Task: structure prediction
Amino acid sequence: MERNHIIGFILIFATLLVFNIVSSPSKEELAKQQMERDSIGLIEKKRVTASQSTTQQTTKANTAATDTFANSTAINKDSFVTLSNDVLEVTFSTTGGKIVSARLKEYVKIAEHKGVTTKSDLLLLEDKKNVYDLQLPLNGKTISTAESRYSPSVNGNSVVFTLQIDSIRKITQSYTLAKTGYAMDYVIGGTGLGSEVQLNWINFIDKIEKGYRYEQQNSTVYFREATEDNADYCSCTSDDNENLSGKKVQWLAHTNQFFNSSLISKSGGFADADLTTEMIDYQTNDDLKKLKSSIKIPLVNGSHEMQWFIGPNEFNTLKSYNIGLEEIIPYGSSIFGSINRWVIRPFFDWLSTYISSKGLVIILVIFLIKMLLYPLLYKMLHSQAKMAALKPELSKIKDKHKDDTQKQQMESMKVYQEFGVSPLAGCLPMLLQMPIWIALYRYFPASITFRQESFLWAPDLSSFDAFIHLPFEIPFMGAHLSLFTILWAISTLVYTYYSTKDVDMSANPAMKYVQYFMPLMFLGFFNSYASGLTCYMFFSNLINIIQTVVTKKFVFDEEKIRKELDIQKGKPKKKGGFQSRLEEAMKQQQKNNEEKAKGKK
Result:
């Protein structure tokens, strides 16, 4: 077996040797293959060399572009350009090509500290912490231009800021201030920028008005979606965020209480807006809020046309743009906002064309409203006079049912019905005035018409009228006392006394005292509110008191009223639906009380 194995291995080796000799290429074939390999190697070497060269050139070009962009801050020193017209002066910085200040020439800022008042220019967008950053895609990254130096080119009331990124790419920002008014055309353009530019805008809202708390509550970010009919806004009283990813925004506005800085698209709208408001403690900071707007600005044919509005929240001016910009004025929503926009505002404006004093306009409005409502007031006072004339009958009922207040109420209702007296008649004038009061509550702090308009001792009807400055702070009231608020509280107490002294409150004695506590409770609320409203409320009470006293003393005759009651008593009675239900409810309640009393026994 070992001999056979050895012979087998020898034969296999010999076979492989012969096959290798027979199948090996000749010298000519080897030379040809070598030539082919050399040719392929040479081609591959050239390709690799060319690729490396191209890569090096591209890297070198991109590095040069990046270096050029990164070093753009060193092109020139920071400088400023100013455009001005009759009402607006706008200052720009070559760093970022952005607005660094907007002075409203027709308005001033009034500051008050410990009774000392100072005036200064009213500036918007001037806070050094503000950010206006256009971001561009470059080398796969997003590059900020906020600190880059732009080259300015001024022509009349226009300026063009240009940032040369490299030999191909550049970005321009063009501003043209209108000859008059608060509008300024704004265009972002350039070459090699792609399809859009990202804008990050951060605006710190400074203190401009005297009433910081209400100024903060009326400062926020407003916006209007391109597909919506009405504007919307971030919360005014807390931190908030509105993410409008996938939606178009026609305009957005950073608003103060009486002024705004709005950016309006004229090229189809902004995209993917992300809007944020952050509350700031105004007691320890110079700012009220931090407003942030991040938007994508689509480039149509390499540019996007826009418009700035930097000015007052004046209704007719904003409405003239026909894009709902006037909705940033916080007049309120639903019916009360409509009353302010379309009834109270135009009426005040119409009267103001004839009367220069806004305080006198307020008093005239009060007088006209009181005259219109006097028939209802007369009816209320007449009803109260009838109730006063029925005191003897009501006193008998009280004496008869001393220990049963439920029975007293039922028997009193029968007396009222018998003599044709409605104890609810006095509520109607109050109910009719409630919508006006609620609307005015929003109107005075929102209307720039009353800003810095003085009347009597109040220097600004849009803010509180501090006539005493305290060296300490009273909880819920602040470190001051407002005279109109105090006069309103006193007049409310006087009017409450005159209007309810003949009203029977035996059924609910607590109401007799609650009505006197209410004005005192609201002292803290109105002490820091717009003095235009407390002025209105005080003179409204004053006219009410005069009308009440004069009517009761000179118009009504007690003997005549008693005769009217006796005549009414003899007439057949027909119960109204409400009165019948009220009596039925009282009877049912009395029955339930009696059953409970029996159950306890």
